[in-house]
Design brief:
With about 90 residues, the protein is mainly α. About 50% of the residues lie in helices and about 10% in strands. It is built from three helices and two strands, in the order αβαβα. The chain has a two-stranded parallel sheet. α1 runs parallel beside α2. The radius of gyration is 15 Å and the shape is elongated.
Length: about 90
């Protein structure tokens, strides 16, 4: 947590080098508090798309699993659904 996908990939390369023959199953976590218009004026569709791009960037960087924290419990299931729908779009 706290690393962007580029830094994650760099750290993963170092970890794999240090691991030698041992298996490494890399993963990370990202925060995504959900949709809604923000102070910068970005729409919920744009924010969902950005979160999905971030998730894909972690996969490309080598993450085998990714946990997503969806913010406050209020409407948690709605945010999970929004994210899943965004991730499944072509």
């Amino acid at each position: 947590m706290g690393l962007d996908p580029t830094a994650f990939g760099e750290r993963l390369a170092s970890l794999r080098a240090l691991a030698g023959d041992r298996a490494v199953s890399p993963g990370t976590r990202m925060d995504w508090p959900g949709t809604g218009r923000t102070a910068d004026g970005s729409s919920e569709a744009a924010r969902t798309a950005a979160a999905c791009r971030d998730a894909e960037a972690f996969r490309t960087a080598g993450a085998e699993h990714l946990a997503v924290h969806f913010g406050d419990p209020d409407r948690y299931a709605d945010r999970m659904t929004d994210f899943a729908r965004g991730a499944l779009r072509p």
